[in-house]
Amino acid sequence: MRKAEFETITLEEARAHRRQRAGAPACPQMTLAAPVALEGVGLHSGHVIHMTLHPAGADFGIVFRRTDLDGGEAATDIRARYDQVGDTMLSTAIRNQAGASISTVEHLMAALATLGVDNAFIEIDGPEIPVMDGSSRVFVEAIEAAGLKALAAPRHAIRILKPVIVEDGLKRAALLPGEGFTLAFEIEFENPVIGHEVIEADFHAPDFREAILSARTFGLLKDVEAMWKAGLGLGGTLENTIVVDGDRVLNEEGLRFEDEFVRHKVLDAVGDLALAGAPLIGRYEGLRAGHAMNNRVLRALFADQSAYEIVELGAPATEAQRKAAIPAE
Given 102, 145, 186, 276, which residue has the most CB atoms within 10 angstroms? Predict the structure, then answer.
């Protein structure tokens, strides 16, 4: 097989090659096989935004560049990391030292994390990621259509070694030791449609992408109207947001899942936790948690070097060695 044929692969082939590729890391880092161009409306600005995801080299990570801004890389480039989160009001926004920001990164980050994309350079001409259909589905389909490319560098993960828990009143977010990566979430809304929902999800399950990443963002009509008056949510429509009014869902097609609300909360958590910079090995639990709590639990994790270790995926467990903490920038 020629080199070009070997390196440009689909998602399913990528998983196999991570295990089987001779002379390469047991679990290599991944990037895109080709650029991915997307266009959509920003949820809060209502403006049409253009975005292109480009392949990137090993250890590059996920970096956004605001093409609508001037000033060079220092002013326009924003690294997708937990310590770059500057705002968690209604979405997760990352910001560089020059003040440039990108908001609503969680849906795209969830897609990249689930598909195993470790490295990508993303050009975008506005301050927020397009909302698309309100889930990660469009991002997943576009990335899968482009394919993935294996890189000649090993992939690392963050293994949780002891419980890390943050609480704020009735809100709670926890990262716990465990095998693989599982998520549990519980929500409680004083609304007859949403109400109390609980879910357990296995990040590595074959149906995770469809069961979780297809769940759409949602809001109560009374809150949506307040957002509009405040100049927020200007791009929100019934095409990209589940809107609940009292005891009914206003979207004509209804819900994709009976418990779509809590499923979307898991999607958000996956995207927020992807800002750790590497896959997690362990368990996440969220109770009435949101973007702020998700970021707080990551900050608490990395503040305690005894709470985690960095391991090479595919290496024997006995060879996993403790490495230095991921430094804040």
Answer: 102
